[in-house]
Design a protein that fits this description.
The chain is mainly α. The chain has a single domain, classed as Methane Monooxygenase Hydroxylase, Chain G, domain 1. Helix content is 86%, strand content 0%. α3 packs antiparallel against α7 and α6 packs antiparallel against α7. The model has no long low-confidence stretch (mean pLDDT 92).
């Protein structure tokens, strides 16, 4: 049987590993969107190649959580923390997948002149990645109020996505060039992936609220 001190040491290691995964995921989001704005295929490929590392981290943390549950049968808040970690790593892995999808778009349209300077998409990326960062910070501090504030930012990301959607659809309706229309579609997908990243950050904030209060709530 694992002693309580060993249990808490191992749980803290998992917690730290989760934060390391979160930092890599944030970097992947920023790099994928920078690669798109700058049409940098090398940066895009680095994001794609790094996805396997993040998948491996998810599996490693998941196995560590299961190991602790099996050996220690934690109760109350310790069990809630492990449950939160298991859920959060799934959200982080899906954020990484969305970053990879954006990187794949970079490679797909790298030889095309961009139809417009990318401003809204990088802004969405900054906001979404900051939400991820702050949601994990709320987890570290177990700060329920901060987690709620993070979730509230999802509406601002949604508003940018909605405005950009309307703008790109208008361009597609007015343009007869199939290449430009296809690029608009790809940019719409990129924006959609960023909107989903903000949704996953909101999910993380919900886990923090659950951890801090024991109550399940739908935020955002």
């Amino acid at each position: 049987m694992v002693t309580r001190q060993v249990f808490h040491d191992e749980l803290e290691k998992l917690h730290q590993r989760l934060l390391e995964m979160g930092a890599l995921v944030e970097e992947a989001v920023h790099t994928s969107v920078r690669s798109l704005a700058e049409q940098d295929t090398a940066a895009a490929q680095a994001v794609i190649d790094g996805d396997d590392v993040l998948d491996g981290m998810e599996l490693e943390i998941e196995e560590g959580c299961i190991h602790l549950i099996a050996l220690q049968q934690p109760m109350a808040k310790d069990l809630r923390l492990i449950a939160a970690i298991l859920k959060i790593i799934t959200d982080l892995e899906r954020i990484a997948d969305n970053a990879t999808n954006i990187a794949e778009i970079t490679i797909r349209i790298a030889d095309q002149k961009l139809i417009k300077p990318l401003e809204d998409i990088p802004r969405m990326a900054d906001m979404s990645a900051q939400m991820v960062h702050d949601a994990l910070d709320a987890l570290v501090k177990q700060d329920e109020a901060f987690a709620r504030e993070v979730a509230d930012r999802d509406d601002a990301v949604d508003a940018i996505y909605s405005a950009l959607f309307d703008e790109l659809v208008e361009i597609m309706q007015a343009d007869q060039d199939p290449v430009r229309i296809a690029q608009c579609s790809n940019l719409l997908f990129a924006a959609r992936f960023l909107e989903r990243i903000a949704d996953h950050a909101t999910n993380i904030a919900e886990r923090v609220v659950y951890l801090a209060s024991g109550k399940r709530e739908k935020l955002g």
